[in-house]
Write a structure and sequence with these properties.
Number of strands: 0
Keywords: Coiled coil
Structural class: mainly alpha
Coiled coil: 37-65
Order of helices and strands: HH
Largest sheet: none
């Protein structure tokens, strides 16, 4: 059986991988848009900021839920 810390480490790695893949797909899809390279970079920087916050929020929620579940 895995410990809570092991589950959280794997969860963080999974969230990071999903976020990285989503950012890569976004960048690839923007390559075919009429946006300039500068506009794409600005948009990707905004998306990166939102992604970082999403990962923090998602990880915190998962950690709260798992911690509560292990206490029952």
């Amino acid at each position: 059986m895995m410990t809570l810390e092991e589950v959280l480490i794997r969860t963080k790695a999974s969230l990071d991988a999903q976020a990285d893949a989503a950012m890569q797909r976004s960048r690839e899809s923007l390559h075919f848009s009429p946006l300039t390279d500068e506009e794409i970079e600005e948009l990707m920087a905004e998306q990166q900021e939102r992604m970082v916050q999403w990962k923090k929020d998602a990880y915190a929620e998962i950690e709260r839920e798992l911690t509560a579940w292990t206490r029952t």
